[in-house]
């Protein structure tokens, strides 16, 4: 089954609660970047043609110990995602190498 790329954005608004926005990227047309603004504030950006998610320091202010911990969590999660993608891609490539297409009318010996 072929899977078409897409970006999913949702918003949930419930009485008495803060609005919640979800962004899910399911596309290879995804850009990731990290920069430091002239003000000295670092930020991380994930974007597709349909949506952009930016993460920066608490209150867009100076870097806190909590900001450093969040950055470590991003780094660890990204490293895990990379390892999982590499492993699964290698497994899928190995599986496709082992499949021999059958020819119509061919019988097993």
Description:
- Residues 90-109 are annotated as: Disordered.
- By secondary structure, this protein is of the alpha+beta class.
- It contains 1 helix and 5 strands, in the order βββββα.
- A 3-stranded antiparallel β-sheet has the order 3-4-5, with no helix packed on it. A two-stranded antiparallel sheet has the order 1-2.
- β1 and β2 (20-26) form a beta hairpin.
- The model has no long low-confidence stretch (mean pLDDT 89).
Question: Concise description?
Answer:
The chain has one helix at 65-98; strands at residues 6-12, 20-26, 31-36, 42-47, 52-56.
Give a quick set of tags describing it:
two-stranded antiparallel sheet, three-stranded antiparallel β-sheet, 109 residues, 31% helix, alpha+beta
Main beta sheet strand tally, sense and closure: 3 strands, antiparallel
Poorly predicted runs: none
Give the overall pLDDT as a whole number.
89
Secondary-structure element order, N to C: EEEEEH
The shape is: extended
Helix segment tally: 1
Count of DSSP strands: 5
Q: Compute the gyration radius: what is it?
A: 21 Å
Give the spatial strand order of the biggest sheet: 3-4-5
Name the structural class: alpha+beta
Q: Per DSSP, what share of the residues sits in E-state strands of 2 or more residues?
A: 25-35%
